[in-house]
């Protein structure tokens, strides 16, 4: 058996891990590269594998850095099954189509305004291809045993978002775990990640490998920001991931208003995708902590702006108010149009509520840049930029360590660290090396590991 690291190494995006036995080949995760241009260019490079001989894709969860390359794989001829949890399939139905649509629209915009070095810029894939790729999805339950050739696997809950799973694979006398993205024990919405069984090897994410989450209560932090915006008579712009983060914000804002901790400001969820995800969230109520009543309450206090015209109409909304829109790292979506309109206004506050990958607009804004480039134009950044980390869906290095200790792993189980920026990978490697007996190493891009 061998594992080839085709993505999600030395970066938090592009997760792809090719596992091969004598008889079978499966790809664990199939994510898009995001962030730095030199990373995004990898999306256009052919994968170093024979797609015709790939038996299946095993998908940990729906976020695009794990799922977003599936339509491109389909475009290049892959017709095998994509195995994942039911909730992940439902989310991918929305996320992948939206990804294709955004790429189409960006290509048209760059072509119209001649912002590309290519005469006719093309999307990596379009909406139709993304929708067609959903025919490959085969959803399974947690703990359901599935066989692909001589490979047997099952999914177990990892927290993080709806449907998120760790994948446990058994083949050729070995048991290997792929952590996926690991959630937190006290997440606002999600239940805690399940401890792992005995393994011969673990590939573990390291997004927050060198950081500890802010111990301050996220709800109190959010209330403080909202109250400042209300006092200043401005607008609160919240770039938010449509899956998980948007729903957590809705729930917290609804609860804070109900408790009288913040004034009853108009709240707009300006994301058709996040609106659909909220419906899925309520449908899969067994996957999270909220009751049916809490789910419906968080939706009732928010105004959904589904159409482009409704989104544009927010320009005439009286201040103060709150706009939640995608994308979470400000790399695309409707938040950019609000940025173009409001970043130069000192009454505006931008609130980031999650990890910002290097090279994204979000990361640059947190670094304190004076201007932000949007659709070819530089927009002065006079808005206040705030961040709260308590809503992160990723376990920090202490929570990851606790998760390992709760698991049935032998003390000397080898661990390959993946899905983290270099500083996070090294931070977690040093911590685990000094505090545990696990054999810890960092995976490199296109490394090949033989078992």
Describe the largest sheet: 7 strands, mixed
Global mean pLDDT: 94
- Terminal Cα span: 5 Å
Name the overall outline.
globular
Order of the strands making up the biggest sheet:
6-5-4-3-2-1-22
Question: What is the CATH topology of the largest domain?
Answer: Metallo-beta-lactamase, Chain A
CATH architecture of the largest domain: 4-Layer Sandwich
Question: Could you name the ranges where pLDDT drops below 50 across 5 or more consecutive residues?
Answer: none
How many helices? 14
Gyration radius, in Å: 21 Å
Judged by helices, strands and strand pairing, the structural class is alpha/beta
Number of strands: 22
What does this structure look like?
This protein has 451 residues and is of the alpha/beta class. The protein contains 14 helices and 22 strands. The strands form four sheets. It has a seven-stranded mixed sheet with strand order 6-5-4-3-2-1-22. Strands 7-8-9-10-11-20-21 form a seven-stranded mixed sheet, with helices on one face. α4 packs antiparallel against α5, α4 packs antiparallel against α8 and α7 packs across α9. It is globular and about 65 Å long. The termini are close together.
